[in-house]
Amino acid sequence: MNAFGEYIDNCIYILVTFFIADVLLRSYKVLIEYFKYKNHYFPENRLWTILCRAFSYNVASLVIYLLVIIVALIRVSCDKRQHFIPPPIYFAFIPLWWLISLSQMGHSTIDYAMFIRENHGLDSASSMAANYFHGYLKLALPAVNSGTGIRERIEFYEQKHGVKFATKRLVILIPSKLFIKSKFESLYLEKAEALKSAYHNRAGVFRAYQNDVYRFTKPINNRFYYLSLEGATPILTFFETLNLPLTKTKQIEEMQREILLKFYKYLRKLVYKWPETEEEIDLIFYDDYKPNGGKQDIGEMLFTHFKHLILSMESKNLTESIRKTLDYDDSRHDY
């Protein structure tokens, strides 16, 4: 029991020593920030902002410190000779804490992946998705004024040309290999006349927003359907970033899959949780290559996808119609 108590005391001393070392290191960072990077802060609250940033702790750290205090109080209550202050020999290990912290000894590239996956909005994937959402999707697709929404423009197109769209939403493609051609080429697709442009004032500029239209070259239940279709432009920009030496970095290249998945997941969250866009957009993430290694035909993939949706919807509508008819006949019979 004495050996276990001695072990607990040593753990407390070590953690208290590391806490003191950590406070000293954070104080050093405060000085660096204040004198070297002072232009990064507003003058009126510079010191306070630096102190808040330097001495912010995550929940896990606060829990550990609280547990240390509780255990230390229990030990002191059991043995009045115990105290919080470590013996002088422990302070000799303070430079060891500084060495471990400043060298980031526990850091690896997997920490980049874990950072990207967290929900803080500081990573490039979240920034790309947020900029795309606020600067384009949320602005150009909802029906802000009469005739400007994507659904209204599709319905106007259908009436004007006597055609039918597979969905009254903008279909946005997100490819696994990032590259998106300026025109989708497939035996299953052919480009048609674009939708009527929508005009919005953005940052003092009256901008035109245009959405392309494609026609399936193969019928679904004897009808040729249309799509408002485009690729996610930030993903193409990301592809270009990776292929230009001026902007490419080893870390971005290694984390490109993580960035892509975070972009897709975060964009889905924004689109489908915002009331004005949840019914206006279909996000489709797809692999550029099939399981057998063959190149994915975008048109064939889209045709298969929407054929299944359309046939399922028609089957559901037929079943519902039959059910209503039977219910009506039963009610007449009862009468």
Structure description:
With 335 residues, the chain is α/β, with parallel strands linked by helices. The chain has two domains: 2-107; 124-318, 3-Layer(aba) Sandwich (Rossmann fold). It has eleven helices and seven strands. It has a five-stranded mixed β-sheet. Strands 3-4 form a two-stranded antiparallel ribbon. The protein is elongated.
Spans with pLDDT under 50 lasting ≥5 residues?
A: none
Count of DSSP H/I helices: 11
Topology pattern, helix = H, strand = E: HHHHHHHEEEEEEHHHEH
Shape: elongated
Look at the helices and sheets and give the structural class: alpha/beta
The structural domain count equals 2
Gist?
This protein is an alpha/beta fold and 335 residues long.
Layout of secondary structure:
Blueprint: H1 2-36, H2 46-54, H3 59-78, H4 94-102, H5 110-117, H6 124-140, H7 150-161, E1 164-175, E2 189-192, E3 198-202, E4 205-209, E5 213-216, E6 225-231, H8 233-242, H9 250-254, H10 256-273, E7 281-286, H11 298-334
Parallel strand pairs: 1-6, 1-7
Antiparallel strand pairs: 2-5, 3-4, 5-6
Helix pairs in contact: 1-2, 1-3, 1-4, 6-10
Protein name: (Mediterranean fruit fly) hypothetical protein
Pfam families: STING_LBD, STING_TM
GO molecular function: 2',3'-cyclic GMP-AMP binding; cyclic-di-GMP binding
